[in-house]
Every structure is written in C-alpha cells, then in structure tokens.
C-alpha cells in the first residue's frame, strides 16, 4: 500500500472531484433568497440558466428568523399554500440535497412573500455519468431509479477521499 504511485493519487483526486456534488446558491449570491425586486418569476428565470443534478445541494441564503424555506408540492407552490410543507427551514443558510430526478418546488414560509414571487421551481436531472438512462422530462412523478447507483458512487467517493487523504499525510 505504501507504494501508491502519484498517478494513482491524482486519479483518485480527480475521481473524487468529479463525483463531488455542487453547491448552488439560489439566486446566484449570498442573501438572494428574498422577495425578488422586479420580475415575479425571477427565481425561475435564474433556475432555467443552471443545471441541477441528483446529489447537488441548493443553498438558500437569507436572514435567519426573518424568512424561511418550505419545500412543497406543486399544488402548494402554485397556491402559495404554506399549511403543510414537506420540509421547512429557518436557519438562514439552508442546504437542501437534491435526492432524486424530477421537479422540486420551494416557497418562502413568510406571510405574503411567496405571493410576491419568492418561489422557486426547478427540474433535477440524473448525472450524465450515471449508467441508467435519464428519464424524459415528461415522466410524471419523480422516482429514484438511480438511488442504488448514487449510493454506490457515494461509497466510492468516500473511499476515494479516504485514500486521497491517507496518501497525503
Ligand atoms: C392548503 O393546504 C392544506 C393541506 O394540504 C389544505 O387543507 C388547505 O385547504 C389548503 N388551502 C388552500 C387555500 O388551498
């Protein structure tokens, strides 16, 4: 084991980086999760310019306690219904892992904010490196056909990181 060649180490580092998930700040920069100043659809204009893959993290940046993030159904998104979200966050720097392909919906939980355009819809895609074919956008409810593969990739990335760190020190 002590005879790891530099090439192997480089390979492991590249492998780890390539499977490492992206963190994407909603709106583009810190503090952007708020009522958009102009267009009421501006979060979706932003999300359409980016690509979101399974395993990526969305980062919602806002003032803790003054705003919030609710992950909701499509119906609740359209009606700005904050009654029973799937998940709710108020910590000010909310990281949400995109677990499966398909559409996801977020709204602000603060009264009146969603109605003023603080809402986000985006479609998560399967990473290109995955062995299974990507579902077409019209494939109805989001299922997770790649979760096994994703878990395996996760295990490999952890092993890769461990070996990389071991090789460094
Ligand atoms: C909001 O959602 C809750 C639970 O899903 C539902 O009972 C309620 O009727 C909805 N309110 C509106 C205004 O649609």
From TrEMBL:
SUPFAM superfamilies: Cupredoxins. Its main location: membrane. InterPro entries: Cupredoxin, ENL_dom, Phytocyanin-like, Phytocyanin_dom. CDD domains: OsENODL1_like. It is found in: Cell membrane. GO terms for molecular function: electron transfer activity. It is a lipid-anchor; GPI-anchor. Residues 22-126 form the Phytocyanin domain. Residues 1-21 form the signal peptide. GO terms for cellular component: plasma membrane; side of membrane. Keywords: Cell membrane, Disulfide bond, Glycoprotein, GPI-anchor, Lipoprotein, Membrane, Signal. Pfam families: Cu_bind_like. The keyword Transport does not apply. Belongs to the early nodulin-like (ENODL) family. This is Phytocyanin domain-containing protein.
